[in-house]
Amino acid sequence: MSLYLGIDFGTSGARCVVIDREGQVQAEGRYPFNMVTVADLPSSWHEALLALLGQISLDIRKRIKAIAINGTSATVMLCDAAGKPVDTPLLYNDGRGAGLLEQLKNIAPPNHTVLSATSSLVKLLWFSQLTTFPQARYFLHQADWLGFLLHGQLGISDYHNALKLGYDIEKLKYPDWLTKKLNLAIELPKILTPGEPVGTITEEIATRFNFPSDCLICAGTTDSIAAFLASGAKTPGEAVTSLGSTLAVKLLSRTYVEDSRYGIYSHRFPNFGQETNKQEKDLWLVGGASNTGGAVLRHFFSNAELESLSREIDPGKISELDYYPLLKAGERFPINDANLQPQLEPRPENNAEFLHGLLESIARIEARGYELLQELGADKLNWVYTAGGGAANPTWTAIRQRYLKVPVKSSVNTEAAYGSALLAMQGT
Ligand code: ADP
Questions:
Q1: 326 C-alpha to ligand 1 centroid (Å)
Q2: Dist CA 221 CA 157 (whole Å)
Q3: What is the pLDDT of residues 124-164, one digit of tens each?
Q4: Which family does the record assign (predicted)?
């Protein structure tokens, strides 16, 4: 039986999932990141990767046909010609490139995705000021470097990780403004389809862990796309809402939508059916993220309270409370207003009533989000999978279904590692 391994490098730890051809989970592993010092990041990632491989039983390792890795989007690094990191990587949320945005505005087109303080491209500009920069040969994303540790090839990435670097995912090439105006002595990665095989596993890793010598290492993806893939959604109109600390929506669509006013952008969906069926059109993963979500609920209630109070709510009844649940002022999607104030008044004495108002208000924001994506041209919504802490709340699901007017289901699989395992299977 052939098996496929997906590895997820998330914000709080690394995980792995092995699946069979039917998508059944055969093994899982996890490696929490404890207090690692930033200077040690690449070695701690390397250690985590080897530890995860070691957690999989020998019997399973021997049957793994392909491996794919997802990293956090816009976590980037520089390395030398041998793949050795030449400086500390910059993490996904590191905004120290903000001061270079004015310079980048002279290079990138107006409102481009790269014009953000945390984009991969602004981080590359920031790196270029370092005294260590001349030692660097390659600019890589976290997933690219981890992939290199398994296949031994440098200078390779995928079009999900490369979006925030400025790669043109419609034309599948680096745009001229990037190649002609950037002028940095660095090799930008060659971009593959996520899941596409890069090469076979290195002899060293195969021997050390007893992987088959022809085990394929595939191009990776980002954590949020891997989590979308995990849901199994693959036809236009299917969507995934992530109800974690914040609320993020992603809708699979035949139309590409981008609107920087609302932080809406599209990722290219790796559609492997396309190679065999040329009739199939490109698919896009159109998404936006709101600042509302579970963090506001957590501010008022413990998880146990959320569960018990939710049971007291009749989801068929409409709450008259009209809130905009935020922890602080500012929203981007589906309303773009940096000064939008939290609206959490009036607060009824009864906590279940208050929670009802909160859940219903967040459900309205989610529904408005999908409406906005469709107004801007995305396919009609027909199915919503749910991931994240809020997915476990049946009362909320029923309320959301009332607003969304389409079936709402919890995803069976929500782990990004599972999505990467699917990618490894589909890509090969
Ligand atoms: P993240 O990874 O984004 O921090 P998770 O996906 O782990 O978040 O989800 C945690 C969030 O889920 C918390 O903010 C919490 O308020 C919310 N949550 C947990 N249990 C429930 C529940 N029963 N109903 C609604 N929300 C819940």
A1: 15
A2: 9
A3: 999 999 999 999 999 999 999 999 999 999 999 999 999 99
A4: Belongs to the FGGY kinase family.
